[in-house]
Every structure is written in structure tokens, then in C-alpha cells.
Amino acid sequence: MRKLRYQGWAIAWTGVILVLCCVKMPASSRSGFFFEGFDKLVHLGFFFVLTVLLFFGRILEKGKYDFRFFSIFKIVFITSSIGVGIELIQWKFFPYRSAETWDFVCDMLGVMMAVCSYIVLHKSDYHEKKA
Question: Which of 71, 51, 50 shows the shortest CA–CA distance to 61?
């Protein structure tokens, strides 16, 4: 429970993702704002931000950048579980939504983008401290 207090933003963002992924969206052909594939871009963005917030909570908890494979693995596992959970919820409980493999793929692309960003930032921080 002590670790969860650093993950408040990530938990709140997960709630936002859950709500927004379960509301009925307008058909893409009726609106000029939504385009084909807009849903996939939204999934990518949602999960990029979620992963960044999870890393941010981890940095707050440790007080520094902490590059450990197991920590990264846990964050990827958590975000993939959330992604699968959202797709299952859409499939089972909301007839106007559908579970799509490409939504999950875009979720994981957002996660991988955030992981790569974290690694690059960690490496740049590491090199600055050595100089």
C-alpha cells in the first residue's frame, strides 16, 4: 500500500481511460473531427501517458531514475493487463463497443514508446552525472 501513494496520478489516469474507452463514440463518417484510425491514435496516447505516469510514480518513490529490468517489466505487465482488461470489458459489457486486437497493439505501442523514452532519459541522466 505504501507504493500506491506514489501512483495516484497513474491510478486517476487509469480511471479516465476506463471511462473514455467505455463511452459511446460518434460514428467517424458523421463528424469531420474523427478520422479513420482516430481510435487507435487515442489508445496509443492513453497508454503512453499511463506508462509515463507509472514511471513518474516510480521515480518519486525511489527519489531518482531507477533503471531496473524488473521494474520496467512490472510496468509493461501492468499496462498490458489494463489494456487486455479494457478490451474484455468493451467486448462483454458494452454492445456499442468492440474488442479489437489493433486497439491492444496500439496500447502496447504507446507503452513501448514511453519505455524507450524512459531509457533514453535514464541514459542521458547517467552520462551527465559521469561528466
Answer: 71
Domain with 8, as residue range(s), is 3-20+39-130
Q: What's the domain count of the chain? A: 1
Report yes or no on 29 lying in a domain. Answer: no
The grid cell for 1 is: 500500500
Question: What is the per-residue pLDDT for 44?
Answer: 96
Name residues whose C-beta falls within 8 Å of residue 107's C-beta, 6 or more positions apart in sequence: 43, 44, 46, 47, 79, 80, 83, 86
pLDDT (tens digit, 9 = 90+) per residue, 21-56? 888 876 655 555 667 778 899 999 999 999 999 999
Global confidence as pTM = 0.85
